[in-house]
């Protein structure tokens, strides 16, 4: 595509840097990792910008790169086992945090990644169902089903948290 596409991409990245960071962070849950994901995604995008056939799809194209880079990092992280369970338990003080967490973000964190992805892209990144299907490389009906199921899972979890609070406060 040439120099003008790189300039357009650079403008797009600069204008939407908070959205890109937020999307990466929603996957990796760590400031440094999220910044790394965004940086690596920008590098991947620039080096493959010639594969973008239609500039109108820049947003979904780059979101797809961001999501895949985030998922790659999570896969790598899963392969790393820092310590075994026995060592971890030796540091356990035996006290538990009894604070109940009713925060939506914590409920989102408990969703499986495919469901969380749909919620984040739809409601936090304001993508349309069709755009989410492109980003996640899924069928539109699959995305609709996941969105419906995700919302039900969130509703159940938030209701359960509310009931637990009522029991503890009642």
How does this structure look, described?
- The protein has 170 residues and is mostly helical.
- It has two domains: 81 residues, Orthogonal Bundle (Rna Polymerase Sigma Factor, Chain: A); 80 residues, Winged helix-like DNA-binding domain superfamily/Winged helix DNA-binding domain (Arc Repressor Mutant, subunit A), CATH 1.10.10.10.
- Helix content is 74%, strand content 0%.
- The chain contains nine helices and no strands.
- Helix 8 crosses helix 9.
- 21% of the residues are buried.
Describe the structure in brief:
This protein is mainly alpha-helical and about 170 residues long. The chain has helices at about 5-15, 15-30, 30-45, 60-80, 85-90, 105-110, 115-125, 130-135, 140-170.
Q: Overall 3D geometry?
A: globular
> What ranges have pLDDT less than 50 throughout 5 or more consecutive residues?
95-102
Measured on Cα atoms, how large is the radius of gyration? 19 Å
The assembly state of the depicted protein chains is single chain
Distance between the termini: 64 Å
The strand count comes to: 0
Instruction: Give the proportion of residues in helices.
Output: over 70%
How does CATH name the architecture of the largest domain?
Answer: Orthogonal Bundle
β-sheet strand percentage: under 5%
Biggest sheet layout: none
The CATH class of the largest domain is Mainly Alpha
CATH superfamily of the largest domain: RNA polymerase sigma factor, region 2, helix turn helix motif
Helix count equals 9
Q: What name does the CATH topology of the largest domain carry?
A: Rna Polymerase Sigma Factor, Chain: A
Overall pLDDT, averaged?
Answer: 82
Sheet/helix structural class: mainly alpha
N to C succession of SSEs: HHHHHHHHH
Tally the structural domains: 2
């Amino acid at each position: 595509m040439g120099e003008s596409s790189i300039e357009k991409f650079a403008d797009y990245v600069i204008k939407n840097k908070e959205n890109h960071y937020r999307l990466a962070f929603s996957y990796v849950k760590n400031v440094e990792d999220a910044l790394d994901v965004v940086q690596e995604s920008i590098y991947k995008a620039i080096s493959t910008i010639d594969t973008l056939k239609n500039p109108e799809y820049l947003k979904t194209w780059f979101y797809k790169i961001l999501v895949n880079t985030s998922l790659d990092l999570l896969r790598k992280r899963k392969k790393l086992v820092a310590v075994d369970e026995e060592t971890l338990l030796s540091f356990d003080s035996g006290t538990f945090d009894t604070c109940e967490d009713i925060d939506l973000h914590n409920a989102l964190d408990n969703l499986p990644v495919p469901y969380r992805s749909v919620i984040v892209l739809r409601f936090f990144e304001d993508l349309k169902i069709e755009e989410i299907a492109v980003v996640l490389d899924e069928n539109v009906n699959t995305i609709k089903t996941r969105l419906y199921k995700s919302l039900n899972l969130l509703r159940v979890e938030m209701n359960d948290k509310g009931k637990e609070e009522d029991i503890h406060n009642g």
